[in-house]
Amino acid sequence: MFIAPATAFFTLFLLFPVLAVLGLAFTNWTGFNLSQIHWGGVANFRQLGSDPIFTQALLHTVIFVAVTTVVLNAVGLPIALLINTKVAGHDFLRIAMFLPLGLSPVLTAILWQEVLGPYGLINELVVHTLHLQSTPIGFLGDPHLALITVLLASVWQYTGYNMLLYYAGLQSLPKERLEAAAIDGAGALRRLRYVTLPYLRPIIAVVVVLNLIGGWKVFDLIYVLTGGGPNHSTEVLSTYLYQQAFTLNSVGYASSIAVAIIALATVSALMRGRLAGEAL
Amino acid sequence: MKKVTALKRRTRSTTLRRTVAGSLAAAALVGALAAGVASGATAAGKGGGPLNIWEWQGGTSYIPVFQAAGQRYTAKYGGTPTLDSVPFASYFTKFTTDVAAGSGVPDVMEMSWTGEYRSLVDSGTLLPLDKYLPSLPKFYGPVMKSLTYKGHIYGIPMDLNTLTIAYNTSLFAKLGLKVPTTFAQLLALGTKIRAAGDQPLAVNLMDGWPDSDLWFSQLAYTDPTHNLITKAEAGTASWNNPQFVQAATDVQEMTKDGLIADGSSSLTLTSLAAAFGSGQTVMMYPAGNFDTSLINQADNGKFTYKLFPFPPLKAGQKPLATGGPAIIWSIPAKAANPTGAINYIRETVNKAGYAEEIKRNFIPSAPTNTSSNKSAIYTQMVGFQPTAQTRAIFLPAVATELQNAMQALISGTATPAQVGSDLRTAAAG
Lengths: 280, 429
Fold this sequence. Notes:
The structure holds 2 protein chains of 2 kinds. By secondary structure, chain A is mainly α. Chain A has helices spanning about 5-25, 45-50, 50-85, 90-100, 105-115, 120-130, 145-170, 175-185, 190-215, 220-225, 235-245, 250-280; strands at about 25-30, 40. In chain A, helix 2 crosses helix 12 (about 250-280). Chain A is globular, with a radius of gyration of 23 Å. Chain B is an alpha+beta fold. Chain B folds into 2 domains: about 50-160 and about 325-385, Periplasmic binding protein-like II (D-Maltodextrin-Binding Protein, domain 2, 3-Layer(aba) Sandwich); about 160-325 and about 395-429, D-Maltodextrin-Binding Protein, domain 2, CATH 3.40.190.10. Chain B contains 17 helices and 13 strands. In chain B, strand 1 (about 50-55), helix 2 (about 60-75) and strand 2 form a beta-alpha-beta unit. In chain B, helix 2 (about 60-75) packs antiparallel against helix 14 (about 350-360), helix 11 (about 270-275) crosses helix 12 (about 290-300) and helix 13 (about 340-350) crosses helix 14 (about 350-360). The longest helix of chain B has about 45 residues, at about 1-45. The interface of A and B includes residues 36, 138 and 143 of A.
């Protein structure tokens, strides 16, 4: 009885949509009339294998997931450790790191568009103030730079998220353990290596998995910042899914892309148990 | 005992009074509701009635035009139209969902002139509107041609736009430049402007659609029949025929010769207008009634600007702008009040509707007297309209691919021949 509302909610808003997407992935449907859904078998999944744009989008998504997961943790954890030492200005640092998280990804994208535009702050500095080059840098318009720019914007926004989770974990680290290690002659690095990191390992596992899942389904920031362009150079799975579903009205094919995203996110979620299990 | 009886009587009497009063109130309420329904039914019977109108123009000068049409509709037919400004980003997602759910479908909807238009027709979602055309103005021919699909019209153009190059007249005078009359002169203009240390033609390539519009601007000349896209869409011409490839070659020349301003690939419409309006580039494309207000916001009256279409390839050819419908009205097949819907649409394109448009710098979709608007830029735009050539491909996959292929061409990662073959591949599905 007590779990009935939660079960109903879960069934209606999670289980049913996932099952519907799974079903639609085997159909050809334009998304308008339910009577016009036609069984297509595995044709959509076959098409995924031969679609060069899907391959490109998958590659970009893998790059996005890998880079953001590594960088967010490589930056977020040290900053959390630094703040935890109560170094001078740690309160300011904590707020400064956390602030971007308070902005919506859409607002972040618009902000970066302004800063990185050809007449934005960075290009004004590079071209007109410092005279480092004569033409503006095409941060978002150059196909070779656009993905890097998107990655930087994402890292800027979400580093504070990782920092916060690690900082919360560090707050619960029993001081006795660190003191005991110090009495035993362990230096700062050894205390980090043998006390702090093992203690944080379950948290690291959760944070990594959250980053992975967030990376697989990234949409808003990229959609607003570049729309997946120029010429698919920042296309990721979810922007390609959106284009297929709502620009080209290929809901069946879009559903097969959604299935791919669900599969990748599920594999990532299963990794959490493995990562955390090793720590326990 | 007497007291009890009296109390019972009083109670019965009070209950009776309450019951009568309650019944009267309920009857009044039912009556009022019935009257409301009857009045709605009467209004609907007169061709009016409540209307739900969807558009994505929230916050723009179009809203007063829509509202004024709504007031005239109410006065003539009865019933109140409700405007629902749905952001474009979620517009078709919401529409698709509502149609699939079978509820909340609008009576009148603004329609996108590429992509969605034909796919919605193909899915049987829009009503054919041919039978209403005799009661509407005689719209410009090229526009109606572009809205004809499978021999029928599913969208009524309310107003039009033209896409031309805007140039800063002060900078032109300072640099001793003249409006080019051939494509070669335009390319030479770019070289001169760069030699003077300025940026020539800024284009908001970041938005994607202007990349396609550069191609359309050249196709207006490379396809003298002005019919090749329609043929290719019908499958009777190839998407990689020489005229299409030549249009891409012209765009490639603009890039190679340095006509396109540096940083254009990172410009959006807003930043384009800001850059041009603040004098950072000598020319900008595309200029149309959709961005003149943005330019005016940026320039603060510092300079004046004028317009010219992309010049023809050869001297002596007539300059041609590109353009097409701006606001298109469609009626969903599941609309609850299609008669009211067409009456509302009529109010946006009759004399009074056009007067509202002209007042706000919108270009009417049929020939009409626009002299009440004295703006020089507006007069120029209206002047380009009768011969404006298409800027639409109605096959969603090809329209999308054109954007991507042109982005690749402009960034130097594709050749004009590849643009043609990419379009052909996209059309083949």
